[in-house]
Amino acid sequence: MKKSFLLFLFAVCSFVICIAQAPSKPSSGDIFQKIQRLDFLGSALYIAAHPDDENTRLISLFANDKHVRSGYLSLTRGDGGQNLIGTEIRERLGLIRTQELLAARRIDGGEQFFTRANDFGYSKHPDETLALWNREEVLHDMVKVIREFRPDIIVNRFDHRRAGETHGHHTASAMLSIEAVEMASDPTTFPSRLTYLDPWNVNRVFFNTGWWFYGSRENFDAADKSNMMAIDVGTFSPVSGWSNGEIAALSRSQHKSQGFGSTGSRGEQFEYLELLSGNMPAGSNDPFEGINTNWTRISGGQKIGEQIDALLQNFNFADPSVHINDMLRIYGSIKSLNESHWKSIKLAEAEEILVAMTGLFLEARTEASYATRGSSVILECEVTNRCRYPITLQGITVQGAAVSSSDTMYTLPFNRETSVEIIAEIKRDARISNPYWLDQPGSLGMYTVEDQGLIGKAQSDPSIQVLFD
Question: Are residues 171 and 158 in contact, defined by beta-carbon separation less than 8 angstroms?
């Protein structure tokens, strides 16, 4: 099994190296929650217009309390906003706000996606917004994300029926979401570009409403809520020691350039979801009610669900490494399944759990702050096995660079650092780590992205990747 460690190379005229992925140090409680997520096969996608539009309380609840695979699709990168922490505006502000969203998702457990739409500034009406955005291309990007992510439910932040009452980007994001859901299920949608992705039917679409959409709390209290469900987002997890409101506040507070943030909350609090399409769950405030989210969802999965349930029931919080063999069996069972959407997702999750159970510490460091094509960089690699399970380091490779030598095999001693020095020569054809959406000139309303595979991604793929085998 290979574990990757990423080094990003950012540059204007040369490569600039920075650590893109700090070594993970999960606690036994974190590992337990990862196993709970491994046992849930359901997904939710939140859709809005800008960074900081997302409801972190709902994303965090889905990801941490319900163990749902959760994502946020922000149609823009927030280039047209204000910057309270520096002088960067426009595209440079968009870079900052992209990283703020990624920092927020690392806290609340969600994944992050974007379209090519450019935040050109405040818009009074969705008609104006859609005149500057390329409607068809934004819809293409949304359909691509929906078909790749395959959400069971979609939650819109804004109301598609309130044109002219709020920021045009806000309403447009909801209007386009309604269209994209229908288009994602139609096999004739974008036939020349998206036929490689199977159509996807979203079970339910909700509008994340609240009193502010009704003008006052009194108006909302008096409103007909027969088509709404109230979800308590104030849950508390003894395993993590955090309330959902506290996690969401930490996530929300990453939007520093916009001056957003809160101190966190505890106790019962409710978010309201108005059903826009699909069937309303009968007698339940669970938006996934009636959707199969266990391992019987895929052929041959029932046995895996039973294995995971047994592991959860007997989990050793004092020493998760005693479950490595159990986890290896689960990993093998997942790997033996036929290829499918959920197999690839759950196989990656199982690998992450295995590494976490070992307490394995992996890190690649360099003192160089930048490098040019053809130059060499010294990498100090640390591997420390913090459990008594026998682990062998079979080699270290560097994608995007030629290395001096990394073929030596090491049996890793218990709780003793193993250090390996590698001289990596950056390949002369290595890709400069420019943000992919800024590689080509765009327009006022849209970015230009020639590589179809990059559309939807939060950031560029790493130019340099260190792999521990």
Answer: yes
